Amino acid sequence: MERLMTDVFLKNKKEWLPIPKCRAGERLYHYTDLSALKGIVMDRSFWVTKSDFLNDKYEFYYAFKVIRKVCAKVIPNPQNRKIFMSALKERMESFHGGMAAQILSGWYILSFSRAKDSLLLWTEFSQSQGYCLEFDYKRLTRGLYDGIWLDGYVIYDKKKQQELVENTLHRILEKKDISRGKLREKLFADDKTISAKELHGFMEEFSACCFAYSMFFKKDCFRDEREYRFVFWAFHEQASKDGRLHTIPMHFREKEQALIPYIVVNYREGEQNNPIRSITAGPKNNSDLAVKGMQYFLRNEKIETPVRESKIPLRY
Question: How far apart are CA 200 and CA 117, in angstroms?
Fold first, then answer.
């Protein structure tokens, strides 16, 4: 796993994973409750949730269905499709199943939105009583120093999802070596059969890309969230006694009588680099006291950030 990420995948992710990203000057919004806001402001840190504990528990399986449809389209031989999909499923499940790994590790996702003052997000993440923090994208990414593995827009359009997977498959197959050329010829032929052994090198790379896509593909019904994600990879245990791996502690928070794993990701806030551009009080929390109390809190922390009321006219 470690070799795949550092030596194979990370060097090629821009080419293989063209996920749309924010640009300098653009803003991201994070809806949360008061307790989490205080941690973000005072401790300069985020609690980043393990990927398989997010609000859509079927994300991984949805992405696999999209990928399977693409493979059904481009691989004409039914036997080849069966071998290909079996190998892909096994590899992706090995990425997904952290508990089965030799060491405890995992993928973690920090979510933002491009939607400002959204009634849907107020309701979903703070019961309309919390706060929305507005972040400057460039300042935020410049300050995060625990290693962003990947970031980008969540993609909701099924056609776009399929196009990305198909393009990635072709790009990895076009890698210039003899074995990859032979595999490409067999895979796209009606009358030639591949073996699982022939797929091994290609599948290491393609499955990593597909797993990454699984964290950026969601059903169209979630479109209004306009989500933007930062993905982190964390090792929690050493594989050996030499201590070569950088390990990050796993923490747990309570939610609806369940324990949710998370990691703490810190951000630097150097001179002229405060990523928080404004804070908005929720529509059921837009009293003078909510705004005034937040203003005093920020002043006490020596942070110059405007505080506003939500413009959504909700009442108790």
Answer: 47
Strand partners, 265: 46
Q: Give the helix/strand (H/E) hosting 304.
A: none
B/e letters for 86-104, b = 16+ CB within 10 Å, e = fewer, are ebbeebbeebbebeeeeee
CA distance 257 to 225: 25
CA distances from 81 to 148, 179, 187 (A): 34, 19, 9
CB 84 within 8 A of CB 187: yes
Residue 57: both structure tokens together: 């528990």
pTM here?
A: 0.87
CA 121 vs. chain centroid, Å, equals 18
Instruction: Compute the C-alpha angle 288/291/295, nearest 5°.
Output: 130
pLDDT in tens, 23-66: 999 999 999 989 899 999 999 899 999 887 876 667 778 888 99
253 strand-pairing partners? 260
